[in-house]
Specification:
This is BFD-like [2Fe-2S]-binding domain-containing protein. The protein is mostly helical. It has 4 helices and 3 strands, in the order E-E-E-H-H-H-H. Strands 1-2-3 form a 3-stranded mixed beta sheet.
């Protein structure tokens, strides 16, 4: 039979975690492409800044997918469903975590919006004359 999962009780565990709510004041003027991460709007639909994404990436639970960052910051939940901000979010995750952009998938390992890359040798063999 296989190994069993061993679970130990943690005395310091708190099952009630407060939500991280980022309130912007009425004078907030985020700008697409701003140099200051706190004002650089990445998701224009949900008004999520680069600083908010970086803050979520620095929290204890690792983020390795677009869905994970979406659940923490709302990027990709707006009208465009991530078509505008998805590539930018992927680039930020890659830059901050050191993962390659190919390792950052929509919903974790095994999910992809693109077909797998074919080896160059496949195309060479395909075009080779008999």
């Amino acid at each position: 039979m296989g190994g069993f999962l061993c679970i130990a009780k943690k005395d310091h565990f708190n099952p009630y975690r407060k939500a991280i709510i980022v309130n912007k004041d009425e004078n907030f003027e985020g700008i697409l492409g701003h140099k200051d991460p706190a004002q650089n709007i990445i998701c224009k639909c949900e008004q999520v800044t680069e600083a908010e994404i970086i803050d979520a990436l620095q929290r204890p639970i690792p983020i390795k997918s677009l869905d994970a960052i979406k659940r923490r910051t709302r990027t990709g939940m707006g009208l465009c469903q991530g078509h505008f901000c998805g590539p930018k979010v992927k680039a930020i995750i890659s830059r901050e975590t050191g993962l390659s952009e190919e390792e950052i998938t929509p919903r974790g390992k095994g999910s992809s919006i693109l077909p797998p890359r074919a080896e160059r040798s496949f195309f060479i063999r395909l075009n080779a004359k008999p």
